[in-house]
Specification:
The chain has 427 residues and is of the alpha/beta class. The chain has two domains: 159 residues, Aspartate Aminotransferase, domain 1, CATH 3.90.1150; 261 residues, Aspartate Aminotransferase, domain 2. The protein is 38% helix and 16% strand. The strands form four sheets. It has a seven-stranded mixed beta sheet with strand order 4-12-11-10-7-5-6, sandwiched between helices. Strands 1-2-3-15 form a four-stranded mixed beta sheet. It has a three-stranded antiparallel beta sheet with strand order 13-14-16, with helices on one face. It binds pyridoxal-5'-phosphate (PLP). The site of pyridoxal-5'-phosphate (PLP) has 14 residues, from α5.
Length: 427
C-alpha cells in the first residue's frame, strides 16, 4: 500500500527543495506522536529537527488536538476584515502578554508572509510620514523565507540566483559571529550615516537556514541601540528563534533594547497549522492612525487570522504555562552542553555550537561545493532515516532542534547516531 502511494506521489507531486531528476523515495508517514513519527509499516523515526522547527510540545499533543477539534465544529473559517472571532483575539492577547513591548498583532499565513508584512509595515511607516526612507539593512548569510520580499532581504545564494535581477537591493553587514563583532558594528555605523535607511532586519542570536550560526546578545543589543538612535526601524525575524528555541521564550527577550517589529510563525501553533503573526509597537501603529484612507496598510490573505490556526496557537501558548515547557528547554540545553566536548574531539568536525534547544555540528566540507549543496547532505539524507531519525542537514552543518517533549533515551539515540555518521564519513 505504501509503495503504491510512493508511485502515486511520484506521478503527481513536486516536493519543496527537492531535485526533480534524482529525488529520494519519500517515506510515507501515517502517524505522529510526541517526538516521533511513524511510517505505514509501523517503523518509528525520531523527529530530530521538529519537522522544520515547527513542533514545540510534541506531535499530536492531545490538548491542541482537542482545541482544533472543538474549533472546527464551531467556526473553521471566516474572512478577517469587518469581522473578528475569539481565537484570534485570545491569541493576540496571549502574544502581547508574552511580548509586552508590542501593541498590535497582524496575522498572516507563515514565516515568509510574516516577514513580508514586517518589511511592508516598516516601509509604509516612512511613506505615511512623508519621509523618503526606503533602504533596508540585513545581515549577510541571512534567510528570511522564499517569497520575493523575504528573498530580497536574504543572502544571495543558490536559493535566489535565478531571481536575482528581480530582488530589491539591500545593504548588508557581516554576521557578528565571534571575532567579527567590531567589523559588523563598524559596517553598521557607516551605513547608518546614509540618509535613507528605513529598516534593519535580523534573525536574532541564531541564523537558522544559513547554517545555525550563533552570535552574542551584547552585539545584537548594540545594533538595536544604534538603530534606535538613528530612528531606523528594527525588525527581528523570530520565525525560527521564537517559542523557546534559544532558551528564552523569544530570542529578543534577552535584549535590553527591543526591536520595533517581530515576525513569528513556525512554533506559534505548536506546529499544528500554518499561521504567521507580525507584532509592532505603538510607534509603528500610530503612523497608520489617520483619517487619510490612502495610508491604510493594504495587506491581507484569504486565510488571515484563520480560527483553527488561532485556536491551536492559544492551546499551544497555554501549554507553555501549564506544562512549564521552558523547563524542558533548559533540560535539553543542559544535555546539548554536555555533548560539545565529545563532538569537538571527533575527526572531521570544524565547529560545534549550541544555544538553548539548538545543537549544531559543522563538518569540514568534503570535496564539492561548500554550503547547502555539499555532498555530505546527500549522504546524511540517506543515513539518518535508515537509522530511525528524521534529520535534514544544512549542507555540511548537521543540527538537532528537537520537540521539547523528547526523552533522554531518544536524545541519546540521536547523539549516538550523529557520532556514528560523522565517524563513518571519515572512513
Ligand atoms: C528565520 C526565518 N524566517 C522566515 C522563514 C520562512 O518561513 P516559512 O517557511 O514558514 O515561510 C524561515 C523558515 O525557515 C526562517 O527560518
Amino acid at each position: 500500500m505504501s509503495e503504491s502511494l510512493v508511485h502515486r506521489d511520484a506521478a503527481v507531486i513536486w516536493h519543496p527543495f527537492t531535485p526533480q531528476q534524482s529525488q529520494q523515495t519519500p517515506i510515507v508517514i501515517s502517524q505522529s506522536r510526541g517526538a516521533e513519527v511513524f511510517d505505514q509499516n509501523g517503523n518509528s523515526y525520531i523527529d530530530a529537527i521538529s519537522s522544520w522547527w515547527v513542533i514545540t510540545h510534541g506531535h499530536a499533543h492531545p490538548k491542541i488536538v482537542t482545541a482544533v477539534q472543538q474549533q472546527v465544529a464551531k467556526l473553521p473559517h471566516v474572512m478577517f476584515s469587518g469581522v473578528t472571532h475569539e481565537p484570534a483575539v485570545r491569541c493576540a492577547e496571549f502574544l502581547l502578554h508574552r511580548a509586552p513591548h508590542y501593541r498590535k498583532v497582524f496575522y498572516s499565513d507563515d514565516g515568509s508572509t510574516a516577514v513580508e508584512v514586517a518589511i511592508k509595515m516598516a516601509l509604509q511607516f516612512w511613506h505615511n510620514k512623508g519621509q523618503a526612507r526606503n533602504k533596508i539593512i540585513a545581515f549577510e548569510n541571512a534567510y528570511h523565507g522564499d517569497t520575493f520580499g523575504s528573498m530580497s532581504v536574504g543572502a544571495r545564494n543558490v536559493f535566489s540566483t535565478a531571481f536575482e535581477r528581480h530582488l530589491f537591493q539591500v545593504k548588508t553587514i557581516p554576521v557578528p559571529v565571534r571575532g567579527q563583532e567590531e567589523h559588523s558594528i563598524s559596517a553598521f555605523k557607516t551605513i547608518l550615516q546614509e540618509e535613507n535607511i528605513a529598516a534593519f532586519i535580523v534573525e536574532p542570536l541564531v541564523q537558522g537556514a544559513g547554517g545555525m550560526l550563533m552570535y552574542d546578545v551584547t552585539v545584537l543589543d548594540e545594533l538595536f541601540e544604534m538603530a534606535a538612535a538613528s530612528e531606523v526601524i528594527a525588525i527581528a525575524d523570530e520565525v525560527m528563534t521564537g517559542f523557546g528555541r534559544t532558551g528564552t521564550f523569544f530570542a529578543t527577550d534577552q535584549c535590553r533594547h527591543k526591536p520595533d517589529i517581530i515576525a513569528l510563525s513556525k512554533g506559534l501553533t505548536g506546529g499544528f497549522l500554518p499561521l504567521g503573526a507580525t507584532l509592532c509597537t505603538s510607534k509603528i501603529h500610530e503612523a497608520y492612525l489617520t483619517d487619510d484612507r490612502t495610508k491604510t496598510f493594504f495587506h491581507g490573505h484569504s486565510f488571515t487570522g484563520n480560527p483553527l490556526a488561532c485556536a491551536a496557537a492559544v492551546a499551544s501558548l497555554e501549554l507553555f504555562e501549564e506544562e512549564n515547557t521552558m523547563q524542558n528547554v533548559s533540560r535539553i540545553a543542559g544535555v546539548f552542553q554536555s555533548w560539545i566536548h565529545e563532538f569537538e574531539k571527533l575527526q572531521g568536525v570544524h565547529d560545534v555550537r549550541t544555544m538553548g534547544g539548538i545543537f549544531a555540528v559543522e563538518l569540514k566540507p568534503e570535496q564539492g561545493p561548500s554550503g547547502y549543496l555539499n555532498p555530505i547532505a546527500e549522504r546524511a539524507l540517506q543515513f539518518f532515516p535508515e537509522h530511525g531519525i528524521l534529520l535534514r542537514p544544512l549542507g555540511n552543518v548537521l543540527y538537532v532542534i528537537p520537540p521539547y517533549c523528547i526523552q533522554p533515551n531518544q536524545l541519546q539515540i540521536v547523539k549516538d547516531t550523529l557520532m556514528r555518521f560523522i565517524k563513518e564519513l571519515q572512513r
